[in-house]
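From the shared-data thread, chain only:
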Amino acid sequence: MVDLPFGSITDVAGITVGHHQRAGRNWQTGTTAIIVKSGATPGVDVRGGGPGTRETDALNPQNLIQEIHGICLSGGSAYGLAAAHGVMEWLEGRGLGFPIGLMNGSPQVVPVVPAAVIFDLGRGGSPTNRPDATFGSRAAGNARRSQQRWGSVGAGTGARAGGLQGGVGTASTTVRLAESGVEVTVGALAVANPNGSVIDPMTGLPWEPSGARLRRPLADERRALIAALTGQAAFNLNTTIGVVATSARLDKAETSKMASVSHDGLARAVRPAHSMTDGDTIFGLAVGTTDLPAVGRHVALNVILKAASETFAAACTHAVLAASTIGEAVAYSDLCPSVYRSSR
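Structure, as tokens:
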């Protein structure tokens, strides 16, 4: 894994992340779980032409659910939605979910676990090897605040990004809300598996460097990179999915707006985005540890929205920069190792 200065979604207090994956012996896929034991206000925005999702209707501001404790991101295309059941069972075992009263004298909950998937079927050799409920429960069990595993892990194990190995990326920033002096943390996690590219073929560098100090690749590296970028199949089933989170206290409509604006960051980092074969979906989480000022709330919210867009763009970039070669698709770090010299 390449160490780059992006921060992490786990910098938002209460957010933990876990991965589970299998690679080798006809496997190349996995699942990533985002767990918030204290609960968070949810939101979502789906933009891609071919989404694979679960429980997105529950996140509509007009509907009942106001708090969730986990999100599941997975490989396996629509089959991979089964991983969310494992996250659901893991949460149920800890009494986390929507309370439905007592049953047989014990409190009972129904965890609401929104999920989204990427297409990675057959990339390890067998299209029938894909995540199931055990992937979700193990990913949830691996969730840590100090998560250090990024790149080609979890839901990013079988990801491809414009012909390169894709992965899971993350980023964070802290913003000050104008005159109030209140500080809010915004973090993002992206599973980059786009049909478009995160890399500008003219420079050989990411469209959105997002603060990483990178040098242009050497001439022979750039030739190999262009061959990889142009050598992908004309028809790919792909998708970029992820989560943007904040420490601010937002309602469901505001959290969904944060997810919506984060798609602007996706479109800056991945070009083109939101195609008919991308299922681009971004979830929002507002942990609610920081209150926004009552006066000028919309101004403060705009600061958060801008940070969400920039942070999600950085997470998309980090996903490709941190990836490592697993299968047929070569990682950017292996094609262009000289690019990273300025970051160390």
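The CA atoms of residues 149 and 197 lie 23 Å apart.
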